[in-house]
Specification:
Mean pLDDT: 84
Helix content: 10-25%
Number of helices: 5
Strand order of the largest sheet: 3-2-4-1-5
Number of strands: 7
Structural class: alpha/beta
Length: about 170
């Protein structure tokens, strides 16, 4: 908004919010902010989906009715999680929780949550979940391809986190 209104000359942001503002998506702006220009993609932030130990879920569609942390409301991870749920037909079909990563990892470990989206800028914040046997669920398939077509800022990125996802997948979204 401050760029569009001329209150600032440059800003740093995750790619989703400026893109949605540029195209006039009602989620961010009611009309296109067509005077915005990108300078560079500095670094994609990988997003992962962790599921608690013992959860019988082989795919995102299996999360129907489960408690899933999507991160703080309004953030980039929250927005991407919602887009993924929409692509799988899970709008309002999961019980969304809005915790910071470290709190969600604790709840995965104590089985208060079934799954969580996480961007791993501080890997240690996920240690409780990983020590309790949480695993990564792959973010791939036709539904994810649909999300990537609709939102070109969502890209396939290497899994730089460490644990390999179920099925041996080595990439995620960012």
């Amino acid at each position: 908004r401050v760029l569009h209104e001329g209150e600032a000359d440059i800003a740093f942001a995750y790619a989703d919010q400026p893109y949605l503002a540029y195209v006039g998506n009602n989620e961010v702006a009611s009309s296109p902010f067509d005077n915005l220009r990108g300078i560079a993609l500095l670094q994609p932030v990988p997003i992962y989906l962790l599921v608690r130990a013992g959860l019988r879920a082989g795919s995102i569609k299996d999360l129907r009715g489960m408690r899933v942390n999507v991160g703080p409301e309004g953030g980039s991870m929250f927005s991407l999680a919602r887009r993924i749920f929409d692509a799988y037909g899970l709008q309002n079909a999961v019980h969304e929780v809005y915790l910071p990563t470290a709190s969600a990892a604790e709840q995965i470990a104590t089985r208060q949550l079934d799954a969580m989206f996480a961007s791993v800028t501080t890997p240690a914040s996920l240690d409780p979940a990983l020590r309790a046997g949480a695993t990564l669920m792959p973010l791939d398939g036709a539904e994810i391809a649909k999300v990537r077509r609709q939102f070109p800022f969502v890209r396939r990125v290497p899994n730089t986190f460490g644990p390999v996802a179920r099925g041996g997948h080595t990439s995620t979204l960012g």
